[in-house]
Amino acid sequence: MRYLPLSADDRSDMLARVGVDHIDKLFADIPRDKLLDKVLPLPLSKGELEVERMLSKMAARNKAASSGPFFVGAGAYKHHVPATVDHLIQRSEFLTSYTPYQPEIAQGTLQYLFEFQTQVAALTGMDVANASMYDGSTGTGEAVLMAHRITKRNKAVLSGGLHPHYGDVVRTLSEMSNAEVVTLKPDLRAKEDLIAAIDDQTSCVVVQSPDVFGTLRDLKPIADACHAKGALLIAVFTEVVSLGLVTSPGEQGADIVVGEGQSIGNALNFGGPYVGLFATKTQYVRNMPGRLCGETVDAEGKRGFVLTLSTREQHIRREKATSNICTNSGLCTLAFTIHMTLLGEKGLRSLAEVNHANAVMLADKLAKLPHVEVVNEQFFNEISIRLKGDATKIVDRLAHHGIMAGVPAARLFPDQGLDDVLIIANTEVNTDEDRDALVAALKEAM
Amino acid sequence: MGNTHYTKDHEYVRVDGDVATFGITDYAQSQLGDVVFVEVPKVGTHLKQGAEAAVVESVKAASEVYAPVSGEVIEANSALEGAPATVNEDPEGKGWFGKIKLSNQSELAALMNEADYKAYLSTL
Amino acid sequence: MLNRQGRPTTPANDATAVHKTFTGNRALQQIEPLIFEIGSTDQTGVDIDAPAPHHKKLGGLERKNPIGLPGLSEPETMRHYVRLSQKNYGIDSGLFPLGSCTMKHNPRLNEKMARLPGFSDVHPLQPQSTVQGALELMDTLAHWLVTLTGMDAVAMSPKAGAHGELCGLMAIKAAIIARGEEATRKVVLVPDSAHGTNPATAALIHFEVRSVPVREDGTVDPKVVAELAGPDTAAIMLTNPNTCGLFEKDVVAIADAVHKAGGYFYADGANFNAIVGKARPGDLGVDAMHINLHKTFSTPHGGGGPGSGPVVLSERLAPFAPVPFIRKTEEGLQLVEDEAEATKHGAHPFGRMTAFHGQMGMYVRALSYMLSHGADGLKQASEDAVLNANYVRAGLADLMSLPFGNKPCMHEVLFDDTWLKDTGVSTLDFAKAMIDEGYHPMTMYFPLVVHGAMLIEPTESESRASLDLFIATLRDLAIAAKRGDTERFTGAPYHAPMRRLDETRAARSPVLKWTPPLPILEAAE
Description:
The structure holds 3 protein chains of 3 kinds. Chain B is α+β, with helices and mostly antiparallel strands. Chain B has 4 helices and 9 strands, in the order βββαβββββααβα. The longest helix of chain B has 9 residues, at about 115-120. The radius of gyration of chain B is 13 Å and the shape is globular. Helices cover about 30% and strands about 10% of the residues of chain C. Chains in contact: A-B, A-C, B-C.
């Protein structure tokens, strides 16, 4: 077996050195009747070529996003990632290192985490960001728990524009921890009255912008209403590129900002791994979940970085920790920060403008189709349309013709009267030809 | 110095009339190592003896500090929030955590005096 | 003069103290500023064409203020991160004996496979007819996991080990709710030797944690469990092999005691790598166990993630598994994403752990590893991991102290600091001296049940020669510590990219992001 360096001779010599005559003597604490005497009924070892063949066959049964016009979004987005990113994250010293608990030999990881935290704080307009969560959805769950700890209340109000998977994560956590959740109805036209839902028991309001249907939300009035009642505003985003063009949630008054960072540096990966971004105000930092990297000096006075404020974390605080999170999204964080460094402010703004321009062009084209209504008045790179017929069927039909038209709203909100709604994302990867192909195919399908 | 009392959790309480100043002992700070953060008690809180009153953190440990006596917190040493090292430097002086208005003087009887505490330390 | 292992027998003359460089750089070790100090907001490493003319539809929400994000050109970016990487220690750099973390070789085939566009470039919400291969991969991995563990079902979506623990405990809570006992069954038993994630997870969903003391031999006593378990017991969380590197020999009796009390047995699978192919948790009475694909099945640790923590479930808990899950139908594989849809198929999911379907990128890597090893190779890997740990134990037992006696361990060997008593050297100092010798330190001060713990897990990836050199080095260090060569330890590391870092300062006045320096004031005339 190519991954195992010991030879048969090594094994018998080493057993002798250890002082036993059979390997199973080292497994003697396993009850005798539970020790397996046969190899389990699974395939036996294979060479690299054969494994590659098997897995490639499975991969070939999937349709890759880059193989045709692709407009699927709703929480994960197809973007171009520079080749530099994937090269760098595969460097052994990044790929095969552990959580940087030994800072003297982990400054590479620690410095990029410090840079990452600074980038995320700047993007979100907040004071401080952590070193990542698993993804945007679990980050949202953690944000709600954090708001409960800060306000000492336990009722969360969820906007009807919140990605329903994110809502499900919050509801699951809340049900299991006796916390209350008020979820507003799916809010296709951003007309919901969130402010009316806030009362003296409300710990936090969770609002996504752009929302799951693509509409940009004005957070300021909601933040003001939250603060008037002693509640916190948790601002969520699933498309981080939007922050290149849209006023940051921090500037709009958010107390905790949490979102999905996949769009920058990370592939679609059929849903994971992704990278959760999490930021807040300085005064709440001790209630924050997850790892934090901070600046310090070494014994010679040289600047260096360490994991810090660890007393919030499970390995020290155990049942009193702010979260149980341990492993987070290390390498996805690296991919994010490298891509963001390549972009810089200038590149991010250009990227965001191209995304928005493409979406505006598509919206204009779609609006001209008979039986199609674009529902969003203001959006970033994603829109929702009402069309004639069942969106799921139309999407399936178009997929058959090589066009990935978007996400039928009914897949996310079954049985909610949204069968004719299609959510369409449009990023820098979509060309004029892609848009024309989509418009023509939709026209024909209706 | 008969008015200072000690708990087995290494809190001290110094009584002056019906006001008790409390904090952690020199032994406790030496066990914790460099103190990096103190969450002092909130003024106005009514504490029961043995209830969680404050939190003290070093780099690798966090410990709850329990109220050595019952009563209302009438003052907190908020200076510690900006200067946690004071707890290491002067734990039983400037490094005090809070002042409690005693609601039950008789609780003091159950605590150790200085000599008893020294004897207790020698058993650890 | 070299000894037979090719190591110099006397420390090399250290010239670094004499010749300080002008730059502060030391050849391959270069000081690297922050991107904020070398980049600028006008610089970029990507070329993006200006957008076509368009009207904006941002409402009044267009960003007005600068963000403050520096950019670097492509060559500058490359150099920045390559230099950073050179300050890191990885498995590929050398032996990485971090107990409980399983730093085994990460085959690059796995990386290649995960990057096939058919896996990496597929969206989680594409029509299911266009992702049948991805579902097949998940289903195949699930089959391997249930077969290796002897369990009934697996919930794939948890994102890492701690998330898997949460999933498992939620399934247990759901089962308790279904029994109508949520008001009474509130206690989770957790041995003192457990990972911190165990009590943290239990507390997260409002279980009360009750500690189980570990007996003198480092394992849990079923009699103690039987005494502590009762009608208030929801579950026990037991790591097996445990964090002392020992197999819980009374695991079956412990499981029986908990089951008899009406509770469930949650196994922390962090150390499953010791027994893959040797024993199945399902045979030991386990009701739920997470599997760290990033430990046992070699997906890279990546400097702290991403992980993946599928949870295998017993028949009693399987119906409560969260959405999504895969179902076989006549048209192919169906991913059931919605709770209402799930109930139509007889399931009672407790909810959802995460958006989408879990860590696909990690599934591909893990399956690639499993297919490569095969059932035979996985068993061999467990045996080699255990053999290597025992070889290290045998090589060091006369110099270092074993808190539970010199007896066989599983995949990791635990020493305490009794042997360092009166040397002036602490576990931390010893670990930092290992850095100077070119090794990553072992896990320190964990588990908490042992004073000054040193937990060494060499993994199956080490050759005998590598282990011999490691043992010889640790022996040299141990002898040096005992003969009073204290400075070698207390000031270590001397040769790492950084000397020991001031963690107190970092925690006392946290600096958690870069802030621009204040403008330099002209000296007043």
